[in-house]
């Protein structure tokens, strides 16, 4: 399997792993704050447009609020998990402990899997609903780029994981002989 030796052709994989960890940590805090802000507001704070096929506007608002509340709670839980595993990654990079890299790598694999499955379902639904291919193509390209970026981040973290593992192995062999 291909392993990057540098991140973005300019810095080593250690620096790239740190940038990835910090970016995920900071974005996790922003998602956490956004979810908390939505939950702190009320039904009337969100932009809701109810169509004519709803007879009762309050029923429409309740449905949209339930969806918004559920997605906000889910976002907060996921953000807390990402904050925790990115903290593990940064600690592992700082202390050169490979066990702390594993949660982030597993999370990346899970997210890539969900992104691929979700994009396949989305594309199938769009084709089924008769969305023109001129609209499907840019969405597919965007999803593909997001999956590529997530996979590249995984490979950068994995490459540094193997560098640290090899360093530990050399130290163990040196101490043994």
TrEMBL record:
Annotated InterPro entries: DUF7027
Pfam families referenced in this protein's UniProt entry, alphabetically: DUF7027
Domain DUF7027, residue spans: 71-125
Chain segments annotated as transmembrane: 18-39, 73-93, 105-128, 134-157
UniProt keyword terms in alphabetical order: Membrane, Transmembrane, Transmembrane helix
Stated name of the protein: DUF7027 domain-containing protein
Organism of this sequence: Scylla paramamosain
Taxonomic path: Eukaryota, Metazoa, Ecdysozoa, Arthropoda, Crustacea
């Amino acid at each position: 399997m291909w392993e990057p030796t540098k991140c973005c052709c300019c810095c080593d994989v250690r620096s790239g792993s740190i940038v990835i960890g910090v970016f995920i940590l900071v974005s996790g805090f922003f998602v956490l704050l956004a979810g908390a802000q939505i939950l702190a507001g009320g039904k009337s704070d969100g932009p809701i447009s109810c169509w004519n096929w709803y007879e009762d506007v309050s029923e429409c608002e309740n449905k949209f609020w339930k969806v918004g509340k559920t997605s906000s709670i889910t976002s907060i839980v996921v953000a807390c998990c990402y904050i925790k595993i990115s903290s593990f990654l940064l600690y592992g990079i700082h202390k050169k402990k490979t066990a702390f890299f594993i949660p982030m790598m597993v999370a990346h694999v899970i997210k890539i899997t969900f992104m691929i499955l979700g994009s396949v379902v989305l594309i199938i639904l769009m084709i089924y609903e008769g969305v023109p291919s001129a609209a499907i193509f840019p969405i597919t390209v965007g999803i593909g780029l997001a999956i590529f970026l997530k996979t590249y981040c995984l490979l950068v973290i994995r490459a540094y994981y193997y560098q640290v593992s090899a360093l530990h192995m050399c130290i163990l062999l040196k101490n043994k002989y």
